[in-house]
């Protein structure tokens, strides 16, 4: 009798952004980690609940990365020390204004380094070594910010970095956003070569507002042919009374969480021959 060769499972990182942003979102991510296939998240560290949830992640062994942020909430640095990064109230500029200043070369590199190092140090102090880096609203690939992050990564030796250059960016949702990101110098591996960081193939933007749809997931998973890929997620609970600091995330976090926890979703992942891992688990054989 001839035995069929074993099926080779592809590694899939189901990764949640925005951990530490708000209790409802962070609790949703922890539930997806405890009861679902999600094994990795990246943390915002400049919000009132951030430290509490960094401690919880450490206790539960959730694999955390750094979700560097310059466009939402208050900085960790004193506003007077980083005037090119904050408005007259001491809050970070909106994404639109941050990107305008970025492309015009109006972000002071010393101020960028001061704030980014403060964020990373806070994360390392309250959680420990981090396995990966990405940016809130993908700001880490834009001018000025990417050069500053590159300098930090050359020193810190963090293993993984998200490059938001999604495969087949003319297919699926958010085509213009995906094209815009793909065209950024910081979205390419060549820019980061000196740092020796690794970057699994990136997906998730193409899901758009359909991240809770099994049909959309089936289409997405069918396009992933790499041995290792990351899919960006935003699960969470809903709390209408919670302060989200003007966050304009377009999807439905709670519907996405329900999808991730469903038996149908887990069956779909298995049917498509994926093995779910975290970034930290990628470092193991």
Write the layout of secondary structure elements.
Elements: E1 10-19, H1 23-35, E2 40-43, H2 50-60, E3 63-68, H3 95-103, H4 109-126, E4 132-135, H5 145-156, E5 160-161, H6 175-182, E6 201-203, H7 214-223, E7 228-233, H8 253-261, H9 263-271, E8 274-276, H10 279-282
Parallel strand pairs: 1-2, 1-7, 1-8, 2-3, 3-4, 4-5, 6-7
Helix pairs in contact: 1-8, 4-5, 7-9
Write a structural description:
With 285 residues, the chain is α/β, with parallel strands linked by helices. The chain contains 10 helices and 8 strands. The chain has helices at residues 23-35, 50-60, 95-103, 109-126, 145-156, 175-182, 214-223, 253-261, 263-271, 279-282; strands spanning 10-19, 40-43, 63-68, 132-135, 160-161, 201-203, 228-233, 274-276. Strands 1, 2, 3, 4, 5, 6, 7 and 8 form an 8-stranded parallel sheet that branches. α7 (214-223) links the parallel β6 (201-203) and β7 (228-233).
Quaternary structure type: single chain
Major beta-sheet overview: 8 strands, parallel
Using the CA coordinates, give the radius of gyration: 19 Å
In total, the number of strands is: 8
Mean pLDDT: 93
Helix content: 25-40%
H/E order of the elements? EHEHEHHEHEHEHEHHEH
N- to C-terminal separation? 31 Å
Dominant shape = globular
As a percent range, the share of strand residues is 5-15%
What structural class do helix, strand and pairing data support?
alpha/beta
Question: Spans of 5+ residues with little confidence (pLDDT < 50)?
Answer: none
Count every helix, treating DSSP H or I runs of 4 or more residues as helices.
10
């Amino acid at each position: 009798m001839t035995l069929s060769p074993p099926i080779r499972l592809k590694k899939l990182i189901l990764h949640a952004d925005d951990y530490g942003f708000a209790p409802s979102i962070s609790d949703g991510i922890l539930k997806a980690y405890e009861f679902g296939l999600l094994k990795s998240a990246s943390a915002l560290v400049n919000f009132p609940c951030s430290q509490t949830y960094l401690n919880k992640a450490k206790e539960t062994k959730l694999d955390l990365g750094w979700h560097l942020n310059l466009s939402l909430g208050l900085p960790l640095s004193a506003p007077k020390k980083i005037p090119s990064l904050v408005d007259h109230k001491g809050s970070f500029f909106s994404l639109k204004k941050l990107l305008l200043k970025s492309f015009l070369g109006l972000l002071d590199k010393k101020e960028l380094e001061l704030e980014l190092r403060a964020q990373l140090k806070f994360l390392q102090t309250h959680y420990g070594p981090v396995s990966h880096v990405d940016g809130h609203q993908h700001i880490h690939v834009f001018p000025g910010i990417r050069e500053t992050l590159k300098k930090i990564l050359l020193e810190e030796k963090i293993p993984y970095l998200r490059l938001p250059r999604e495969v087949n960016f003319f297919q699926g949702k958010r085509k213009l956003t995906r094209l815009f990101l793909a065209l950024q110098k910081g979205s390419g591996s060549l820019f980061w070569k000196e740092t020796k960081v690794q970057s699994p193939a990136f997906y998730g933007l193409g899901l758009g507002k359909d991240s809770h749809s099994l049909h959309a997931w089936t289409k997405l998973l069918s396009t992933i042919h790499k041995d290792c890929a990351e899919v960006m997620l935003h699960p969470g609970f809903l709390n209408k009374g919670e302060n989200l600091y003007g966050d304009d995330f377009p999807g439905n976090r709670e519907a996405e969480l329900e999808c991730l926890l469903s038996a149908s979703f887990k069956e779909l992942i298995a049917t498509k021959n994926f093995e779910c891992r975290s970034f930290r688990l990628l470092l193991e054989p």
